[in-house]
Recover the amino acids of this structure.
């Protein structure tokens, strides 16, 4: 197994990348024991706060969006692995400024187990926490079977929108309702044409053939069931946009956010070609794009491919999306 | 009759050693089905077991020792295998009875307790292509066996291995393998293989 990555001792990747993140953003965040990435503004916060959990190896997300206006504490596990629940409980205790904490968990087996275990402890301790799960991957299950839908890039705009609502003084009940409403109205589909390697053990995930792509690829390079012949940017954009419009039941006259999230080895050039065709497709249907983002947000190492994300928008959510934020990888 | 903590220590150490010796096998299996980190996770978890068990001696309070072992395992960032393995050991600690009539009776009770807690946490049943496919048949042998403990553990290990082998022909209902549908056929569930090694290690580590 040969792996061509700029790393040191594979066991230390997570610790070293978090140290790098903190050193590169000394005014925004700090890293403490047990991989807690903490917004420096948390110290003086008098509002609802936001905590999330997830494995490393998907940078910039999730920890790259810690800062004012988005995440207050991101609890990082190890590469692709959820953190232990005790660190999460510690984070929730630290984050609670008397107004309660929104706890966001992506639907992946390890994160959900840690989230469930954490909530047991939260009840015991009497902390004011509401948990919201993101599960918007349409690849494997219908909307009615949300438990079998993975959490993909949708968590990131959710942090942004809820972070802005919290900053504007909304109550925990209001922020949690907004989070759930946004989560219920978002959908993602992913595609990959080249899979990645696990940076700790050099193992490569299920191989794709030279002329194949897989629609429905997950956040860890695990398969999604939709293998097909490699297609053009235009063809792929239409296959994916069509699936999302159907899943969300989007109608002419509605407004959406569109994210093209690169998963690591697909160029911004290719992503812009995709966005162009998605824009044409939605315009033809009378659906208006009111917010857009073409960027590497939540990656899967050097996996070539992207996630296409749509969310139904209204003026309130749009205002929160456009509100100020100061994090390492999203500032306005 | 007082319990023999070193006997329990050797048993658990042997189980951890058996898993640790096959980390590469687990990684390869997980690459076919998941994201390839199961071996890495089990390496971290067994290292914690080696560290914590090292200090056990004839004076160790077994219940406290198992609680402390569980506590250390819960600190590991271990994806889904971490909390599931943690639940298994937590079940051992919860069931540990310092007044058990014999060390063999104690071993039996903690292995049954491990299953109970694992079931509550995982919610998986036999046939879901998970760790449960090895744990359940092994536990049934331990629950019903009338043979001596050495024979019982050997039979439990065989049952766990057979259960794990069967997972190759199952469709996954949990974890990342469920997302690849029929492509998971022909591959064993890595978590079930871990527990086949676990029970095989117990059988090897048992000394009457």
């Amino acid at each position: 197994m040969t792996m061509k990555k700029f790393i040191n001792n594979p066991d230390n990747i997570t610790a070293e990348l978090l140290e790098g993140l903190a050193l590169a953003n000394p005014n925004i965040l700090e890293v403490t024991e047990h991989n807690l990435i903490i917004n420096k503004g948390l110290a003086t916060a008098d509002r609802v706060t936001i905590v999330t959990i997830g494995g490393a190896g998907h940078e910039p997300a999730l920890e790259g969006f810690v800062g004012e206006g988005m995440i207050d504490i991101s609890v990082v596990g190890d590469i692709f692995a959820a953190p232990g629940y005790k660190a999460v409980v510690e984070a929730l205790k630290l984050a609670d400024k008397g107004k309660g904490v929104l706890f966001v968990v992506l639907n992946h087996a390890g994160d959900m187990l840690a989230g469930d275990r954490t909530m047991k402890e939260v009840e015991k301790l009497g902390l004011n926490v509401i948990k919201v799960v993101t599960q918007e991957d349409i690849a494997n299950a219908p909307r009615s079977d949300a438990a079998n839908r993975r959490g993909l890039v949708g968590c990131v705009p959710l942090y942004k929108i809820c972070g802005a609502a919290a900053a504007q003084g909304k109550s925990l009940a209001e922020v949690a309702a907004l989070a759930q409403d946004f989560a219920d109205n978002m959908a993602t589909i992913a595609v990959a044409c080249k899979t990645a390697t696990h940076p700790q053990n050099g193992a490569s995930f299920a191989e794709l053939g030279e002329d194949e792509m897989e629609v429905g690829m997950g956040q860890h390079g695990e398969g999604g069931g939709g293998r097909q012949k490699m297609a053009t940017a235009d063809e792929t954009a239409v296959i994916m946009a069509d699936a999302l419009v159907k899943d969300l039941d989007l109608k002419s006259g509605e407004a959406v956010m569109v994210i093209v999230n690169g998963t690591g080895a697909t160029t911004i050039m290719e992503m812009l070609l995709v966005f162009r065709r998605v824009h044409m497709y939605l315009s033809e249907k009378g659906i208006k794009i009111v917010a857009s983002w073409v960027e590497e947000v939540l990656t899967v190492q050097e996996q070539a491919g992207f996630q296409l994300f749509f969310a139904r928008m209204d003026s309130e959510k749009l205002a929160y999306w456009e509100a100020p934020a100061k994090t390492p990888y999203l500032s306005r | 009759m007082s319990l023999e903590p070193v006997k329990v220590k050797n048993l658990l150490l042997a189980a951890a050693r058996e898993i640790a010796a096959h980390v590469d096998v687990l990684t390869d299996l997980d690459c076919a089905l998941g994201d390839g980190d199961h071996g890495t996770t089990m390496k971290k978890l067994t290292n914690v077991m080696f560290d914590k068990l090292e200090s056990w001696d004839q004076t160790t309070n077994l219940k406290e020792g198992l609680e402390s072992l569980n506590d250390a395992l819960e600190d590991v960032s271990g994806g889904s295998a971490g909390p599931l393995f943690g639940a298994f050991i937590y079940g051992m600690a919860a069931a540990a009875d310092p007044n058990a009539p014999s060390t063999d009776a104690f071993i039996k009770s903690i292995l049954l307790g491990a299953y109970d807690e694992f079931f509550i946490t995982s919610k998986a049943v036999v046939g879901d292509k998970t760790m449960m496919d090895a744990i359940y048949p092994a536990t049934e042998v331990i629950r019903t066996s009338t043979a001596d403990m050495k024979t019982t553990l050997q039979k439990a290990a065989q049952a766990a291995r057979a259960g794990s082998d069967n997972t190759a022909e199952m469709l996954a209902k949990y974890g990342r393998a469920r997302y690849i549908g029929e492509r998971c056929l022909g591959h064993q569930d890595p978590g079930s293989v871990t527990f086949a090694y676990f029970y095989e290690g117990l059988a090897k580590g048992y000394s009457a």
Summary: Chain A touches chain B at residues 14, 34-35, 55, 76-87, 108-110, 113-114, 117, 139-140, 148, 150, 198, 200-201, 203-206, 216, 218, 220-225 (CB under 8 Å). The longest strand of chain A covers residues 186-194. Chain A has a mean pLDDT of 94. The CA atoms of residues 211 and 230 of chain A lie 5 Å apart.
